[in-house]
Every structure is written in structure tokens, then in C-alpha cells.
Amino acid sequence: MALYEHVFLARQDLSPQQVDALVEQYKGVIEAGGGTVGRVENWGQKSLAYRINKNRKAYFMLMDIDSPAAAVKEVERQMGLSEDILRFMTVRVDAHEEGPSAMMQRRDDRGDRGDRGPRRDRDDRGPRRDRDDRGPRRDRDSNEGGE
């Protein structure tokens, strides 16, 4: 069996209980196909970058799946037919992440800069130099070409 991460977007006008019912429905499809669903994360209702089927917001859900490809294909088929699902994406992964996903971590804990460390002060850059592809920069204190 293969490991998958499956993210789907549900309509904004659904109640949280209806979203949970959708998750349970698709969990049942995976389990009927011989797979298992591990972690399920509700990322909450978030604004979309653009409108999808007249929706400006959607519920974002993540499911970690360990299943044969046929069961995942059946879930995708059912989601494509459902009017409650706006978008979905399934990605095959080598291993599931341990702990919460990046969306569930606090912004401070994400480590957006990675191993680059904190930003330096802007003062350690020194004075600007002229670029080689331009003529020399005129002196700012002189009144050449001005007043």
C-alpha cells in the first residue's frame, strides 16, 4: 500500500458538523477499499485567493492515507461528483510527517527562514557602489542639472 496526503476544500456554507460528516464518509470509502486513514487535520475556514463556484472562503481539510491506489481513486471520483467539495489534491509521499503539519503550527514555530538564521542589520551592507553597466552616479550635493 502507498502513503498519500489528501487535501480538500469544502464549501463555506457547510456547518463544521457537515464537514466532519464528509470526512467520515471518505474515511469509510478508504477503509472499504482496504486502506487506513491516519491523521485528519481541520485547518479551519480560510479565505481563497480567488472565487471558486461563487465561494470566497472554504474549509480546508488534510487526511493522511495509507491505502491502495484504487481506494484513493474512488475517493477522488466521489469528491469530483460532490457539490460540497470545491477542490481536492492527493499527493503520494514517502513517509507521513510526525506531529502537526506546517499549517497547524504557530507562525513563530514554523522556522520560515530555515537554517539561514535571523536577518542581519541593514547597516552592515556598507555604502552603495556604482554598477558597472551605468555611468557614474552624480554627486547628490551638487546642483548639476537642477535648480
From TrEMBL:
KW Phosphoprotein (keyword) present: no
GO annotations of cellular component type: cytosolic small ribosomal subunit
Keywords: Ribonucleoprotein, Ribosomal protein, RNA-binding, rRNA-binding
CDD domains xrefs: bS6
Function: Binds together with bS18 to 16S ribosomal RNA.
Family to which the UniProt record says this protein belongs: Belongs to the bacterial ribosomal protein bS6 family.
Protein name in UniProt: Small ribosomal subunit protein bS6
Gene name for this UniProt entry: rpsF
